[in-house]
Amino acid sequence: MKTLLQVLLLLIAGVLLAGCTALVVGGAPAGGHDTTSRSGAETSRDATITSSITSRYVHDSVVDALAIRVTTSQGVVTLQGSVSSQAAAARAVELARSTPNVRRVVSKLTVTP
């Protein structure tokens, strides 16, 4: 059962951790993109996209929000994690693609029944 606390933690984590991959992986930019030329507005837009997608996952009956890591760089969304079915993977991609300001979705989801 999804609780309000889980929803809040996911949204906070999505906003705070958006783009932090560079800190973890030896200074490499998140998603392989050059983040040095990103404007503050673009960084904010990417964080908003990530939070919106995570929120959609939390409220969806097919997608397990805790199983999917969402990152956004320059409007390109990357989904990583393990889902229970091909239908869940397709739904996750569909929800991400239909989010405003998303330019492209890269799915690195694996199906593990």
Please tally the helical runs, counting DSSP H or I stretches of 4 or more residues.
Answer: 4
Spatial order of the strands in the main sheet? Answer: 1-2-3
What helical percentage do the residues reach?
40-55%
- Percent strand equals 15-25%
Low-confidence stretches: 21-28
The Rg value, from CA coordinates, equals 14 Å
For the report, how would you describe the main beta sheet? 3 strands, mixed
How would you classify the helix and strand content by structural class?
Answer: alpha+beta
Distance between the termini: 19 Å
Question: How many structural domains?
Answer: 1
Could you say which overall geometry the principal axes of the C-alpha atoms support? Answer: globular
**Mean pLDDT, nearest integer?**
82
Q: List SSEs in N-to-C order.
A: HHHEEHE
Work out the number of β strands.
Answer: 3
